[in-house]
Amino acid sequence: MIQNEEPVIANSLWSATANPSAPCPELQADVSADVAIVGAGFTGLSAALHLAQMGRSVVVLEAQTPGWGASGRNGGQVNPGLIEAPNDAIARFGPEMGQRMIRLSGQAGQLVFDLIAEHHIQCDARPVGWLRAAHNSTGMQSLVHKAEQWAQHGADLKLLSRADVVQAIGTNAYIGGLIDPRGGNLHPLNYALGLCDAARAAGVRIYGQSRVEKLERRGAEHLLVTKRGQLRAGRVLLCTNGYSGPLHKGLQQSVVPIRSVQVATEPLSQELRAGILPGLHAPSDTRRLLSYFRMDAAGRFVMGARGGYSVPATRARLAQARAWSIKLFPQLAQVRWAFEWGGYIAATADQYPHLITQLGLAASVIDQYPAELSGGMQKRVALARAIVDKPEILLFDEPTSGLDPITGGVIDRLIIDARERLGATTVTISHDMASVRRIADKVAMVHNGVIIWAGPAEAMNDSGVPEVHQFVHGLAEGPLTNEKPAASPAKMATS
Length: 495
Known about the structure:
CATH superfamily of one domain: P-loop containing nucleotide triphosphate hydrolases
CATH topology of one domain: Rossmann fold
Oligomer: single chain
Strand content: 15-25%
Helix content: 25-40%
CATH class of one domain: Alpha Beta
Number of helices: 14
Largest sheet: 6 strands, mixed
Shape: globular
Distance between the termini: 46 Å
CATH architecture of one domain: 3-Layer(aba) Sandwich
């Protein structure tokens, strides 16, 4: 099923244990539908099923086979809710949209399990809750914060002590945790294949090996062109996740592919199974680059983590996943690792479905490449790409250079927001003293390769250093001249 991915990540457990499924024929004719859906993964197939049940004619075009992309490559966690604490959505999008986002995300897990039950999908579904494990005190504080806020919205999330986590997981590597009873885990590829069968039974036409090569609007219709056929539809849903490619420029710029990798053991003995994940949870931890792990139906231990973007980097990440598994559960040291696989999943810069507006980009520019945007818009796109991976340190080199004061102020606010929301440290090189005063906690001035002064931003005006005084006040007279290299203030802002 996933043999077409590069060999280093093609040995998939999910593919090896997939249920039989009728093949989807290639589109080799001209067809029409009310709605065209590109991508036969969770999103595309679930949307197709619901639209068909509403009486719409639906055609799904898939470049490979159903579940081939992100849907068949993930850890199989059913994770309700939002990345951030729920009230963050209200603060960002207002009460109406924020509450709607909270409600829909909170109900997502139940929707999945309801679909599985309704359509008798055989995918080893376990509604045992989603367990998040805290690796340090900061992570635990974050979980407490989320639990308190979700309680305000009617969700009963349970905080776990260290002893509770040890009992549920079987390792003492974590100081506490949080379990969301609305979640659980499943076999992700079999869930996708089950959705495919359910959608076809509802009348959806699904074509595999039918990559959309061109998408264009013709009056009230959309034309989707594949190698051997064409599809006309009144509406189009692009559900391509991390495999979106260049089909739609706006989607390509707003959705960032992220490589994920997983490793799995051979089936464990009953003795080993007894001490590893006895509650059959699929935990994820609170690390910036989180780890997530589980047992499959046959007792194989599975560990997932962020992947690399080259073959050597991917091999290193696979090795790290195995090593971390053994660190958590030393009893796995002598177990044979039988599978290793991965692929792309997708994320937006702020983890919400409103990347464009959140970054201050007008809807009118969504179909433009960054090179076609103004300088200010380009910087916002660059910032989006920088924060999508939730880095611990953000480096900025003259972020407001060449911008008008209004746009510069917008960029400064976005930097501050990213720092506060991510809990990251930001380091900025800037000659824009207005920007430095707005965003810096600490400032260091470098002159001729030497730090000549460092201190709090509010102390710059009274530094007592002539070069600093001249630079921050923009004075023509002083020890700094045009013949000497200009001093450079470096902002070091910490949250």
